[in-house]
């Protein structure tokens, strides 16, 4: 078989593997079969890894950008909240994409999405009501949401973060 034909077949197998059209085991077997032990396989998947790394970097940078938007800009509060809602939506879409392509092994995108939702909800309550009891309430709701997501997705760190958040909130309210 010619090298050009083998490369075309291997590209197609990589496409199947990245889009979950075939199970990963089958794709790895076919790649090992068509590469005949050569290292041609690792060169083709680098572009997919770079794209995932770039999207993860964008998602990670959304959190510091949210803090910069809140504390270091002189935009009106409505504009800040609109930007935060945009960040939440982008982070949610990136989380769903990462979950689809990488699988549930990657937890950063979920954490960042939940933190952005927390920040946005607190800012919304601050804009509309400006009372500390409602800010405590929305923090409590977010902590309950984290506990629920932690139980549902079997993520102990989210479950315990929600519990610790409730304990800290109770401590702040009591004192």
Write a structural description.
By secondary structure, the chain is an all-alpha fold. The protein has eight helices and no strands. The protein has helices at residues 3-18, 24-35, 40-44, 46-71, 77-101, 108-128, 132-152, 156-174. Helix 1 (3-18) runs antiparallel to helix 2, helix 5 packs antiparallel against helix 6 (108-128) and helix 6 packs antiparallel against helix 7 (132-152).
Tell me the series of helices and strands, N- to C-terminal.
HHHHHHHH
Any low-confidence stretches, pLDDT <50, length ≥5? 40-44
Q: In DSSP terms, counting alpha (H) and pi (I) runs of 4 or more, how many helices?
A: 8
Helix content range? over 70%
Average pLDDT reading: 84
DSSP, total strands:
0
- How far apart the termini lie comes to 76 Å
Largest β sheet strand count, sense and barrel closure: none
Strand composition percent: under 5%
List the topology elements.
Layout: H1 3-18, H2 24-35, H3 40-44, H4 46-71, H5 77-101, H6 108-128, H7 132-152, H8 156-174
Helix pairs in contact: 1-2, 4-5, 4-6, 5-6, 6-7, 7-8
Gist of the model:
The protein is built from eight helices and no strands. It has 175 residues and is mainly alpha-helical. The longest helix has 26 residues, at 46-71.
Which descriptors apply to this entry?
175 residues; mainly alpha; 8 helices; elongated
């Amino acid at each position: 078989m010619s090298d050009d034909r083998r490369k075309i077949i291997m590209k197609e197998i990589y496409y199947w593997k990245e889009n979950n059209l075939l199970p990963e085991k089958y794709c790895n077997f076919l790649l090992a079969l068509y590469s005949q032990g050569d290292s041609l396989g690792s060169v083709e998947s680098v572009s997919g890894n770079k794209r995932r790394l770039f999207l993860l970097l964008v998602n990670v940078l959304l959190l510091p950008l949210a803090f910069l938007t809140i504390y270091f800009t002189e935009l009106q509060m409505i504009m800040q909240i609109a930007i935060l809602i945009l960040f939440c939506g982008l982070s949610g879409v990136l989380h769903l994409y990462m979950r689809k392509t990488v699988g549930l092994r990657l937890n950063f995108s979920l954490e960042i999405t939940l933190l952005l939702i927390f920040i946005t909800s607190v800012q919304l309550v601050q804009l509309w009501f400006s009372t500390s009891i409602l800010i405590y309430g929305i923090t409590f709701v977010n902590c309950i949401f984290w506990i629920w997501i932690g139980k549902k997705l079997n993520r102990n760190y989210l479950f315990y973060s929600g519990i610790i958040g409730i304990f800290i909130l109770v401590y702040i309210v009591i004192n």
